[in-house]
Amino acid sequence: MSAAPLLEVDDLSVRFDTDAGTVHAVDKMSFTLAEREVLGIVGESGCGKSVTAMSLLRLLPPTASISGRARFDGNDLLGASSRRLRRIRGNEIGFVFQEPMTSLNPVFTVGRQVEESLRTHRGLSRSAARKRAIELLDLVHIPAPERRVREYPHQLSGGMRQRVMIAMAVACEPKILIADEPTTALDVTIQAGILDLMRELRERLGTAIILITHNLGVVADIADRVVVMYAGRKAEEAPVRELFARPQHPYTIGLLGAIPLPGAASKQDRLREIPGRVPSLAELPNHCAFAPRCPRADELTRSEVPPLRSVGPEHLVACFHPGGEWTQ
Amino acid sequence: MSYVELATVNPRAGRRRLLRKRLLRRPLAVAGLVVALAFAILAVFANQIAPYSYRATDFNAILVHHSSKHLLGTDPLGHDIWSQIVFGARASMEAGVLSTLLALAIAVPIGLVAGYYRGWIDPVIARLTDVLLAFPFLILAVGLAAILGASLRNAILALGIGAVPGLIRIARGEALALREEDYVRAAIANGARDTTILFRHILPNMMSTLIVQATVTIPLAIIGEAVLSFLGLGVQPPATSWGVQLNAAQDYLTEAPRLAVYPGVAIVIASLAFNLLGDGLRDVLDPRTQR
Amino acid sequence: MGSFVLRKVGAALIVLFLSSILVFLGVRALPGDPAIALGGENRDPAVLAQIRHDYGLDRPVPIQYVHWIGHALRGDLGTDSRGLSVAHTIVVKLPITLELASLSVLLGVLIGIPVGIISAVRRGKLSDYTSTTTALVALSVPHFWLGLMMILVFAVNLHWLPAGDYVSVSHPLQNLRHMLMPAIVLGTGLAAVLARQMRSAMLESLGTDYIRTARAKGLSEWSVVCKHALRNSLITVTTVIGLQLGALISGAVITEAIFSIAGFGRLTVESIQQRDYALIQGIVLVAASGYVLVNLAVDLAYSFLNPRIRVAGSRA
User: Touching check for C215 and chain A: CB below 8 Å?
Assistant: First the structure.
């Protein structure tokens, strides 16, 4: 692994101007991604993980304001010119969206949509692009790719559409693949296949992956490092094994406690839920965002924002009272 | 507002306030509303507002340009043009509003029945509507007016019936879609009676679409009345409407163009007002638009 | 796709059939005794009786209908009150109106669609605001009044364009000069409707997930708008064009009257005013049939453009 990270995100904040006021979706997120690394970003719905990812490629609606810094391959990403951005999108950074049912254009064939990236970024001719598209569909394990290439999205199942999306995203062999909840809309059985595919892509193409999900099981399966987000802020970050073995943030501990484990009936009769709800992102609280739901909350956490502190090798936590079991 | 307060406030009133706020944010729609109301007032209080009766002729003041006695001048028979416009507003507004209401009264029940009950009655209604829609609105209206005879009342009937097929199609479409909504299915599963479902669940949810459609049908009817009268199939002189005035103005186009300009401008402003209002309402009532 | 086409054609035929019945009955419902109208000036009872027999007016109505439709299908629409063949009159006058309609549609499409696209792309900016308001104003203007005003300005005051009449296509330049104002009058309404529909359809397309995907692929903005979004929006707008043709026909009726163009529209007005039943029947039948056929063409075009209908989904 080379020393300089492929992607460096520093103090990224995203604000939305809506009818009901300003919504602070992301507050000072920082993380890095090294080559060939798989980074998992975990959190529940609405915690800002998708927004973080989409802000990197400026795929957010015009009501969004982005601040902070991001460097990709040593160059400024957030401030990149439109031309440079277009060259990065789909070419050096690929994006896979969450909803395969609506993310493909219904009036163009699947093949044409995959070929588009190739023709735009690699200047391939029609026939060369067609050939490569078939190879790509094969790469993502779509059976009978020569036939599928001429079909329309509505003729494919959800799982296959997701594979097409992945094919589209890796067509130009990008350095980074960002996958936003790639398996959420799919059955569990299909899910395993998609994850295997991602692993395989990392092996064969050497792509670094940012995997966004609310499913800790997926993260355990495939990630090297994990970032846990809560209410737009980073709560904890650690290598995957370390996170599962020694979770420090009460939220992470709660998340792990809420995973149903087969055969653990003796140790936990009920799934432990985390009481309370995700806070509204309309105001930036100047205290720990998790405090209202945290059993360890006290004066300190209700009046100050906990800074990120190191609690182990490559293990960071934003908490005043990290560590140990969840004390009820 | 804290959670407790929100819960005790009447949800309907809250929604109405939100809608009013959204409407006020759209100055064009508000302008349309104000102008439409102004025309309504002109129509209702024509006798009080117009300085002269529409029948009053003054043969000493023929084709006068603007003067202190006649704000907009007079026509070849000595009628005061401004008064003509005011009384014309009455005929046009009557035609516009009444024919639209008539059309709604006929089309909504039919569309509801077709869309909700489906069965054998739906394809029949759909085919018949298609046949009627094969004839453009104005052609239908002209044909009906020719059959019924020329008068304002018949013009209103003709325009109303002409608008029915289009409104049936919309009402039917709405009923069809709303029928599949979860809360309707839940009501059916709970054994609610058909009439209850129709009046409590389906009809109220169609309201916004119907209101918008009605608001944009009115200008079509106003223009329709003008066309009918222009062709001699609507209001008959000495009764007046903007269409009648335009018809009479044709012969004097070169001498006194203002005879054609004023009624026409009146039609444009009235239609525009309703169209702006309708557009604004459409945006306001659509939950997907943000402001 | 085959069954879809068949169904649409079948539906169109049914509608045609029912329309013809409607036309037939509607004409019969017009006030006045048809025999008198058909006989012209002649009030001699014997002549009237003869007319009644010739036209089958003493037969039961259904028989009359069959008689009429049978002839119509063979291209014979009877003779009008002056003894001229209805079919011939229509055939002579129809192309004029078709030319007017085509020019108007051309104008409407060339102006309306680009304006709609630009408004959608520049949503919220001044150009969007002005175009949508202009479109709305254009919709609120009665076309016959617009025609009168244009004659006033361009013919009477400025003497740039002729006030009316029709010059045949054999003199193309003159023909266009005469057709320009009427085409603008009719085309304006269509342009306004198309601009609004196009804007609305484009806004909807541009907000979809697949447009987001297209941007994420690094496609140029032009490609995103004009290839991905436009293709989807055109599908929606196609149906609108079909519906608007009806309004175009009714608009042509009055426009021809104002501009003194002796076309199909003017023929319609005259025939109604003169209670010429044979002519009215023929005219309305042709008009309705034309409309139904055009809508059928639009439906088929729609199904061709929309892959979801063209290719049945087979989810493997």
Answer: yes
Integer Cα distance of C101 and C190 in angstroms: 11
Residues of chain A found within 8 Å of residue C1, distances taken between Cβ atoms: none
- Asked if the Cβ–Cβ distance from C307 to A120 is below 8 Å, we say no
Task: Name, of A38-42, B87-91, B129-133, C304-308, the range with top average pLDDT.
Answer: A38-42
Which has the higher per-residue pLDDT, A93 or A324? A93
What's the mean per-residue pLDDT of chain B?
82
Which of C11, C149, C288 lies at the smallest CB-CB distance from B135?
C288
Number of continuous H segments (helices) and E segments (strands) in chain B: 13, 0
Tell me the domains of chain C and their CATH numbers: 2-73 (no CATH), 86-273 (1.10.3720.10)
Q: Which of A204, A198, A125, A139 is nearest to A167 (CA)?
A: A139
- Partner residue facing B253 (CB), from C14, C152, C251: C152
- For the segment C94-145, what is each residue's pLDDT rounded down to a tens digit? 888 888 888 999 999 999 999 999 999 988 888 888 998 899 999 899 888 8
Cβ distance of C228 and A155 shorter than 8 Å:
no
Give the H or E element holding residue C172: helix C172-206
CA–CA gap between residue A307 and residue A293 (Å, rounded): 18
How many whole angstroms from its chain centre is CA B290?
27
Interface ipTM: 0.83
Which residue is associated with the tokens 């560590």? Answer: A323
Which of A90, A64, A66 lies closest to A76, judged by CA?
A66
Mapped onto helix, strand or coil, the DSSP state of residue B61 is coil
Predicted structure pTM score? 0.80
pLDDT above 60: residue A326: no
C-alpha radius of gyration, chain B, whole number: 23
Q: Which chains touch C (3 or more CB pairs under 8 A)?
A: A, B
